[in-house]
Design brief:
The chain has about 500 residues and is of the alpha/beta class. It has 3 domains: about 130 residues, Rossmann fold (3-Layer(aba) Sandwich), CATH 3.40.50; about 220 residues, ANL, N-terminal domain (Rossmann fold), CATH 3.40.50.12780; about 90 residues, ANL, C-terminal domain (GMP Synthetase, Chain A, domain 3, 2-Layer Sandwich), CATH 3.30.300.30. It has 15 helices and 26 strands. Helix 1 packs parallel to helix 8.
Length: about 500
């Protein structure tokens, strides 16, 4: 009998019921079976509820990729709360902002991560759990999960993403949103229970988080790594674990293809490779086919606000190498001009997405939400205006042209130029700065900064870059810094970034 209300964590319950002894997660130091994942997440959910976490409360998970983070995510949902997964390299000022903006009621953190002690004093917190401590062990002792109170229209997660202003925006995703996304993506990838999915992407990145959720939904095994810092070790892991699904971003694939030793690893177990964040150059597509001879290669495109927009069927990679594909299952898309009129094939305009994956809105930002979510074709519905300029061809294949704002997408992460500019301007001796994104075969886009410094202050590009590393997350640090005597300006005094391009 069909359930009237299906929640995201019902995926875990169903899989654990069907194959309790199957391995859910493997890391370099531990293995967790589905029945154990249910038991530990039930107990942690009870701890959260007993501490006062209620339906709709936000739980910040500040942790490395690992079993504790996986348990914490599912426990949060079972506690009727909303998961906010935060990148472990997040700087203290941003962590403080996320805790305050989300008004988090609980913080779950790894003890080795910096800023945990200071973050624990955030205003709205009711409970702080540090993994690996006695309290953490007690929190995962036997316990019955709280009474189920959510329906599928309730929030399951808030995923923070930087916008053009540099102020992070929380993308609100309901249980229904996330189930729709998992179902659609799993359908075209044909994810199976015998799959072994490698995830080196951070769980704070929605691309990484959905690998974990898809694995649970299919009853597959997730091989979870902290990062892609050591590519040779990653490829060795693929061979050792007989990985079948390899999700990545252009930076990762370019790095692997540049390795002379890559071909020496047994990668024949891989049956599908996925790429998002930026389109793969044709030469990389061809090289990946050689590196993964048994794999289907999927090029994909999407936004956190709707998870995924399109995918390019593997058979079309050579025929339409510049396309980002067709709409994912159960999704519609079209192109509009500035007057909101639908455009025919070949004309460039703003991409609009209609489907069950479209976000509920931005957390506590009604004005920003109103710009993105607008009335759709049917009375009472809303659709997503992406802010991306695209075009369609005669066969309905989408081609990405540019972003309507100046957000830079580098290494699969969104970089707000204003946030980078603010950090550089904070360096003593810097007078002016303008940051742009420039095409880069390895990164997708590279962050490039043009800086005007005080002639009396001894600042060079290397010093500025070092200061940036101390102030910014790694993916935001400019890879190119150019010193200029002045910056081009328009008649009203605004910096003309188009002249810098």
């Amino acid at each position: 009998m069909m359930r009237a209300c299906y929640l995201l964590h019902d995926l875990l319950a169903d899989t654990a019921r069907a194959c309790p002894d199957a391995i859910a997660v493997t890391t370099r130091s531990a293995t967790l079976r589905y029945r154990e994942l249910v038991r530990r997440s039930d107990a942690l959910a009870r701890t959260l509820a007993d501490a006062g976490v209620e339906r709709g409360d936000r739980v910040v998970i500040f942790a490395d990729n690992g079993i504790d983070a996986v348990v914490a995510f599912w426990a949060t949902l079972k506690a009727n709360a909303v998961a906010v997964v935060v990148h472990p390299q997040t700087k203290p000022s941003k962590l403080d902002y996320l805790l305050a903006d989300s008004r988090a009621r609980a913080l779950i953190a790894n003890p080795h991560l910096p800023y945990v002690e200071s973050a624990a004093h955030a205003a709205h917190l009711r409970i702080v759990l540090v993994t690996g401590t006695a309290a953490w062990g007690t929190a995962q002792a036997a316990g019955v999960a709280p009474v189920r109170r959510c329906i599928d229209l309730d929030l399951a997660a808030i995923i923070y993403t930087s916008g053009s202003t540099g102020e992070p925006k929380g993308v609100m995703l309901t249980h229904r949103n996330m189930i729709a996304a998992v179902s659609s993506i799993s359908e075209y990838l044909e994810v199976r229970s015998d799959d072994v999915i490698l995830c080196v992407l951070p769980l704070a990145f929605d691309y990484g988080l959905y690998q974990m959720i898809m694995a649970v939904g299919a009853g597959a095994r997730l091989v979870l790594e902290r990062s892609f810092a050591f590519p040779a070790e990653t490829l060795a892991l693929v061979a050792a674990e007989r990985v079948t699904g390899f999700p990545g971003v252009p930076t990762m694939f370019a790095t692997m293809l540049a390795m002379k030793s890559a071909a020496s690893f047994d990668l024949t177990s891989i049956r599908y490779v996925t790429n998002t964040a930026a389109a793969l150059p044709v030469k990389h597509v061809l090289a990946l086919r050689e590196l993964f001879p048994a794999a289907k290669i999927f090029s994909m495109y999407g936004l956190t606000e709707c998870k995924r927009c399109t995918y390019l069927p593997p058979d079309d990679l050579v025929r339409k190498p510049d396309s980002v594909g067709i709409a994912i299952p159960n999704t519609e898309l079209w192109i509009v001009d500035d007057e909101d009129r639908r455009l025919p094939p070949g004309q460039v305009g703003q991409l609009v997405i209609r489907g069950a994956t479209v976000m509920r809105g931005y957390w506590d930002k009604p004005e920003a939400t109103a710009k993105k979510l607008r009335p759709g074709p049917l009375p009472g519905e809303v659709v997503l205006y992406t802010g991306d300029l695209c075009r369609l061809d005669d066969e309905g294949y989408l081609y990405f042209v540019a972003r309507m704002d100046d957000v830079i997408k580098s290494r699969g992460e969104k970089v707000a130029p204003k946030a980078v500019e603010a950090a550089i301007l904070d360096i003593p001796g810097v007078r002016e700065v303008a940051v742009i994104g420039v095409p880069d075969e390895l990164l997708g886009q590279a962050v490039k900064a043009f800086v005007v410094v005080d002639p009396e202050v001894p600042l060079d590009p290397a010093t500025i870059q070092r200061e940036c590393r101390a102030r910014l997350e790694s993916f935001m640090v400019p890879s190119q810094i150019v010193l200029r005597d002045s910056l081009p300006r328009s008649g009203n005094g605004k910096i003309q970034k188009t002249e810098l391009v």
